[in-house]
């Protein structure tokens, strides 16, 4: 596996990779890799001849009081994991390579980014859309792989690719991969390592109570009541607070107050012991 930390290195390594032909997949990450990330890499390997993974803790998607400095960084360990998975090239730029001084551009996707994490984390999705657009332009992959774990992020990236007529990758080649979970149902996340043993045990209430809420909604319960019960049970189960618990249209992410015939999604963000966890599941 080659590693590039500057754009020149990336271009040289890519020229070598593409000289032999074959398709290229991109798997963007912020590192601190776990089985969720590695599942994206495995799906990418199945679909394309070469996989390029990126590791970049993107400062512009963190708010002023968020965990940018504390975010786990373990490049050597991550690099070994990616190499073992058959990744051809690791793109691990420094902040200066990504945002040289004088950088002034931002991509803002309205609609799908308005609610939920977009409302709770102002500017977050502008940072995501901008850095992912840059990664697409730098790597020009045939396909790009993202986790459904960050469901709203996936919707934002698809809307950006569609609206800006991106061709490498085309919107249809932005592949969503189902969320990989721990044995007790908790969605894998780099942030799970912040949890104390007690909070980690209590965190399993999130997927468990989401499933209970979905069962109630699908059985005809009032959506507002089901969501209120979900929030109450999370707090009773050890969560400090719930940023949002919402039912939304699975495509547009428009909030819903009743279960429609079209696919819907339950989206939740909740805080436990200072850590903010997000999860989402299909409804209906
Ligand atoms: P991150 O490093 O958290 O920015 O995540 C990088 C990519 O991995 C994103 O597309 C995430 O949605 C995806 N991802 C993170 N956790 C999981 C998971 N538990 N299952 C599937 N994909 C995931």
From TrEMBL:
Pathway in which this enzyme or protein is active: Cofactor biosynthesis; (R)-pantothenate biosynthesis; (R)-pantothenate from (R)-pantoate and beta-alanine: step 1/1
Record keyword Heme present: no
InterPro entries given in the database record: Cyt_trans-like, Pantoate_ligase, Pantoate_ligase_C, Rossmann-like_a/b/a_fold
Pfam families: Pantoate_ligase
Binding site for ATP: 30-37, 147-150, 180, 188-191
Amino-acid positions noted as binding (R)-pantoate in the UniProt annotation, renumbered to this chain: 61, 153
Active site, renumbered: 37 (proton donor)
Top-level taxon: Bacteria
Reactions catalysed: (R)-pantoate + beta-alanine + ATP = (R)-pantothenate + AMP + diphosphate + H(+)
Residues the record lists as binding beta-alanine: 61
Signal peptide limits: none
Compartment(s) of residence: Cytoplasm
Keyword Ion transport: no
Chief location bin: cytoplasm
EC assignment: 6.3.2.1
Keywords, comma-separated and alphabetical: ATP-binding, Cytoplasm, Ligase, Nucleotide-binding, Pantothenate biosynthesis
Gene Ontology MF: a single term: pantoate-beta-alanine ligase activity
Subunit structure: Homodimer.
Miscellaneous comment as given in the Swiss-Prot or TrEMBL entry: The reaction proceeds by a bi uni uni bi ping pong mechanism.
Matching PANTHER family: CYTIDYLATE KINASE/PANTOATE-BETA-ALANINE LIGASE (PTHR21299), PANTOATE--BETA-ALANINE LIGASE (PTHR21299:SF1)
Role: Catalyzes the condensation of pantoate with beta-alanine in an ATP-dependent reaction via a pantoyl-adenylate intermediate.
Annotated family: Belongs to the pantothenate synthetase family.
Stated name of the protein: Pantothenate synthetase
Organism: Altererythrobacter litoralis
Gene that this sequence comes from: panC
């Amino acid at each position: 596996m080659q590693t590039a930390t500057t754009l020149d290195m990336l271009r040289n390594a890519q020229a070598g990779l593409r000289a032999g032909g074959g398709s290229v997949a991109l798997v963007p990450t912020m590192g601190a890799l776990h089985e969720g990330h590695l599942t994206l890499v495995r799906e990418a390997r199945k679909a394309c001849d070469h996989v390029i993974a990126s590791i970049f803790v993107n400062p512009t998607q963190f708010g002023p009081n968020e965990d940018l400095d504390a975010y786990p960084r373990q490049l050597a360990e991550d690099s070994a994991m990616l190499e073992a998975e058959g990744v051809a090239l690791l793109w691990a730029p420094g902040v200066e390579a990504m945002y040289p001084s004088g950088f002034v551009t931002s991509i803002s996707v309205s609609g799908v980014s308005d609610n939920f994490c977009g409302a709770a984390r102002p500017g977050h999705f502008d940072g995501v859309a901008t850095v992912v657009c840059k990664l697409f332009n730098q790597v020009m992959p045939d396909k790009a792989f993202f986790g459904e774990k960050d469901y709203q992020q996936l919707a934002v990236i698809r809307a950006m690719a569609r609206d800006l007529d991106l061709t490498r990758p085309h919107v249809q080649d932005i592949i969503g991969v189902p969320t990989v979970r721990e044995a007790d149902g908790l969605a894998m996340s780099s942030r799970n390592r912040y949890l104390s043993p007690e909070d980690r045990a209590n965190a399993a209430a999130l997927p468990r109570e989401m499933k209970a809420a979905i069962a109630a909604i699908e059985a005809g319960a009032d959506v507002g009541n089901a969501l209120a019960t979900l929030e109450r049970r999370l707090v009773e189960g050890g969560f400090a607070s719930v940023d949002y618990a919402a039912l939304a249209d699975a495509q547009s992410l428009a909030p819903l107050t009743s279960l429609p015939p079209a696919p819907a999604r339950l989206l939740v963000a909740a805080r436990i012991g200072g850590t903010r966890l997000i999860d989402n599941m299909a409804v209906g």
